[in-house]
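Moderator note: this is an archived Q&A kept for reference. The question asked for a predicted structure of one protein chain; the sequence and the answer are reproduced below.
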Amino acid sequence: MSDDGHQHTGHERVPGRQRRRFPGISTRAYEHPADRSALVALRKLSGFDTVFKALSGLLPERSLRLLLFLSDSVRVSERQFSHLHDMLLDACYILDLHKVPPMYVTQDPQPNAMCIGLDEPIIVVSTGLVELLDEEEMRAVVGHEVGHALSGHSVYRTILLFLTSLALKVAWIPLGNLAIMAIVTALREWFRKSELSADRAGLLVGQDVRASMRGLMKIAGGNHLHEMNVDAFLEQADEYDSGGDLRDSVLKILNVLPRSHPFTTVRAAELKKWAESRDYQRIMDGHYPRRGEDGDASVSDSFRESAASYASDVKTSKDPLMKLVTDLAGGAGDLGGRVRRGFDGFRSPPPAKGDAPGGGEE
């Protein structure tokens, strides 16, 4: 930070400011309820424990670190990418993560970041991301990855990466592929939810919701902020949620299954909703669960929170399928007719008059 109270970056001058710190903060403070419930479901999946133990033995941490990163990436330190090093230390200080994970910058034009590792988390950011984001936006990304590290997400992310690669190699074995893909699908479902948790951690570190939004917009549309607008971007999420009919709802589900990340507009809308919530304000005021209390946290309470979150999402969603679920729960009439009308587009169009057998109408 310079004497005039401003931080100098390669993109712009950002006012220096103090950020709140959260000593002893529990991951329960920022983890999305759907993240926790999806992880519980994943752990109960048949065969997951066997795969987990097998991969843990096959992928030594030292080999992962040496082969993938020390050999062909740049280690962030006081002497290399020092501004990222400062952000990493700051993020760990704010979230009270005592052991700072190593960070690497790898050459890749695609903007990307990840936190992997079986024994210890490793943070990796691409050159495309470093070049795309300004200091405040990058600070939120570093906080996002530190949130993954604090929550212990790196282990499952690593397994997902290796299983995705393995599934391609054994695609010719039908049963083997089906078993692996079942676990991969469950891992992807969990990881999409874990991204929502990490986005919240990034906001707690950056403490600038507009910067978090700008970062997500840039990841979606590139470095053209003068051509983009946060409010318009969030309207896209609303349009995506409410647009179309039941056919579109099914297509949305099918489209998201192969993805490890939620759609960017959805992430932005979820983060904005949390930033405006009482939960976020309480954390910023210093009222949040501590790690020392994690042992006393009730599993049933966690499930109740998850169930309440899902119920609220379904109730407030504008998606046609979610509306149908709500109506089913409420006992609305003529649901059969609504379902048939919603899926009419999947069937062939009815024959025109005179085309039916006998020259009349069907």
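Archived answer notes: The radius of gyration is 23 Å.
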